[in-house]
């Protein structure tokens, strides 16, 4: 992570385990470009901090004593839609991953993620708005292929995909970032982001999770 790419980053941590929270704060403070790291052990404390100054990224635990992570994220995003949430959780079941990503989380990492993995996630979320991993992709695809999936977008837009858009969509579903897709296709990241935006427009999806669900539901990709 470079200071030039992520200047004056404001981070926050919501976790009810003091040792984990404080250790994470020390790790985050040493990352280039980080201007401040605030921490809270309870939702009410974090909410008060956000009302003073909204952080760029919140690292959110799902298991809290007074409010679960899903409810906390819903309340926070309703009041602070610009807040970018990265989930850090011990829970890896598909239902948790899909719920949080469909709600609007920007990434979902296990609590045993390495320092480099966390730094990469923060960098990518700040640069592109998300950090998508193969684990997230698989969870969304499995959820989309269940017998009683949620309503999905119309398939008519599928016939409008260009060959390049189809390639980009496949790589998105594999969990590749815009930078990595650009490397694979030997094009610029800006060009990839242009195709990405077109895919969102054509499918009616609001985020990466929606794109993966669309592709899996309509058989465009296989598990």
UniProtKB/TrEMBL annotation:
<dbReference type="InterPro" id="IPR039420">
    <property type="entry name" value="WalR-like"/>
</dbReference>
<dbReference type="GO" id="GO:0003677">
    <property type="term" value="F:DNA binding"/>
</dbReference>
<feature type="domain" description="HTH luxR-type">
    <location>
        <begin position="154"/>
        <end position="219"/>
    </location>
</feature>
<feature type="domain" description="Response regulatory">
    <location>
        <begin position="10"/>
        <end position="126"/>
    </location>
</feature>
<dbReference type="Pfam" id="PF00072">
    <property type="entry name" value="Response_reg"/>
</dbReference>
<dbReference type="InterPro" id="IPR001789">
    <property type="entry name" value="Sig_transdc_resp-reg_receiver"/>
</dbReference>
<dbReference type="InterPro" id="IPR058245">
    <property type="entry name" value="NreC/VraR/RcsB-like_REC"/>
</dbReference>
<dbReference type="GO" id="GO:0006355">
    <property type="term" value="P:regulation of DNA-templated transcription"/>
</dbReference>
<dbReference type="InterPro" id="IPR011006">
    <property type="entry name" value="CheY-like_superfamily"/>
</dbReference>
<keyword id="KW-0597">Phosphoprotein</keyword>
<keyword id="KW-0804">Transcription</keyword>
<feature type="modified residue" description="4-aspartylphosphate">
    <location>
        <position position="61"/>
    </location>
</feature>
<dbReference type="GO" id="GO:0000160">
    <property type="term" value="P:phosphorelay signal transduction system"/>
</dbReference>
<keyword id="KW-0238">DNA-binding</keyword>
<dbReference type="InterPro" id="IPR016032">
    <property type="entry name" value="Sig_transdc_resp-reg_C-effctor"/>
</dbReference>
<keyword id="KW-0805">Transcription regulation</keyword>
<protein>
    <submittedName>
        <fullName>DNA-binding response regulator</fullName>
    </submittedName>
</protein>
<dbReference type="Pfam" id="PF00196">
    <property type="entry name" value="GerE"/>
</dbReference>
<dbReference type="InterPro" id="IPR000792">
    <property type="entry name" value="Tscrpt_reg_LuxR_C"/>
</dbReference>
């Amino acid at each position: 992570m470079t200071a030039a790419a992520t200047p004056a980053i404001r981070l926050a941590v919501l976790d009810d385990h003091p040792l984990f929270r404080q250790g994470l704060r020390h790790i985050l403070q040493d990352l280039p470009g980080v201007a401040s790291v605030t921490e809270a052990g309870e939702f009410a404390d974090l909410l008060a901090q956000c009302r003073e100054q909204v952080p760029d990224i919140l690292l959110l635990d799902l298991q809290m004593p007074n409010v679960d992570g899903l409810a906390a994220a819903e309340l926070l995003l309703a009041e602070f839609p610009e807040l970018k949430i990265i989930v850090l959780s011990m829970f890896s079941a598909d239902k948790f991953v899909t719920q949080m990503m469909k709600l609007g989380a920007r990434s979902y990492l296990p609590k045993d993620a390495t320092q480099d993995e966390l730094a990469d996630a923060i960098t990518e979320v700040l640069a592109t708005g998300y950090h998508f991993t193969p684990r997230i992709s698989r969870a969304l695809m499995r959820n989309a292929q269940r017998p009683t999936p949620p309503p999905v977008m119309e398939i008519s837009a599928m016939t409008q995909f260009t060959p390049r858009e189809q390639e980009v969509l496949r790589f998105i579903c594999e969990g590749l970032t815009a930078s990595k897709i650009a490397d694979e296709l030997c094009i610029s990241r800006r060009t990839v982001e242009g195709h990405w935006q077109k895919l969102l427009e054509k499918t009616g999806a609001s985020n990466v999770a929606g794109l993966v669900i669309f592709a899996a539901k309509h058989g465009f990709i296989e598990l």
